[in-house]
Amino acid sequence: MINGLIILCAYLIGSIPSGLWIGKIFYNTDIREHGSGNLGATNTFRTLGKKAGIVVTVMDVLKGTAAVLLAALPIFSDSSIHPLILGLVAVIGHMFPIFANFRGGKAVATSAGVLLGYSWPLFVLLLIAFLVTLKLTKIVSLTSMIAASVALIYSIVYYFVTGDFALSILVAFLFTFIIYRHRANIARIKNGTEPKVKWL
């Protein structure tokens, strides 16, 4: 019973459509009708501007962190679910949110939030890699996939050092999700038609 409840909570947290709610409440805009039609932070930046984009990014990151930290709450003390599984469930909720007709974002920010809640040094490393790569390329999708690759390499090395197999498995899943959700972006990058950010 308690395991089912904590998994449901993780999914519902991940399902919070930050970009949709910020757009509708403060800008009277449904970002699904603009830009890429995606509910993630990148389309929020593109559609609503820098301020809204930053807010949505932070909210999406915190969804992943909150899901991981659910396991630390006294109400869920009897749960046997690993915190990383809760993070993974939140990421699935972000990609397929019940509050937005199961059309969500591409899981980058929420995945980062999961890592922040579980291994903040890895989060800091990825944040640095993300910002440096974005500054150089100006392409968010490419930067996101490179950051995911860095996380995968780190988790593999970390496993051989510490034996933390759970982190390696989680990052492998997140890497797969991120690459899959960026299929169209990969095609545009190859064709040289992927848009570059203008707000950096």
TrEMBL record:
Protein keywords: Acyltransferase, Cell membrane, Lipid biosynthesis, Lipid metabolism, Membrane, Phospholipid biosynthesis, Phospholipid metabolism, Transferase, Transmembrane, Transmembrane helix
Gene Ontology biological process: phospholipid biosynthetic process
Native source organism of the sequence: Lysinibacillus sphaericus CBAM5
Transmembrane keyword on record: yes
Membrane topology field: Multi-pass membrane protein
Molecular functions (GO terms): acyl-phosphate glycerol-3-phosphate acyltransferase activity
Transmembrane segments: 5-27, 52-76, 83-102, 108-132, 139-159, 165-180
Enzymatic reactions: an acyl phosphate + sn-glycerol 3-phosphate = a 1-acyl-sn-glycero-3-phosphate + phosphate
Cellular compartment(s): Cell membrane
Subunit structure: Probably interacts with PlsX.
Pathway listed: Lipid metabolism; phospholipid metabolism
UniProt cross-references to PANTHER family, sorted A to Z: GLYCEROL-3-PHOSPHATE ACYLTRANSFERASE-RELATED (PTHR30309:SF0), INNER MEMBRANE PROTEIN YGIH (PTHR30309)
Protein name in UniProt: Glycerol-3-phosphate acyltransferase
One term under GO cellular component: plasma membrane
Role played: Catalyzes the transfer of an acyl group from acyl-phosphate (acyl-PO(4)) to glycerol-3-phosphate (G3P) to form lysophosphatidic acid (LPA). This enzyme utilizes acyl-phosphate as fatty acyl donor, but not acyl-CoA or acyl-ACP.
A Pfam family assignment: G3P_acyltransf
Enzyme Commission designation: 2.3.1.275
Cross-referenced InterPro entries: G3P_acylTferase_PlsY
Family: Belongs to the PlsY family.
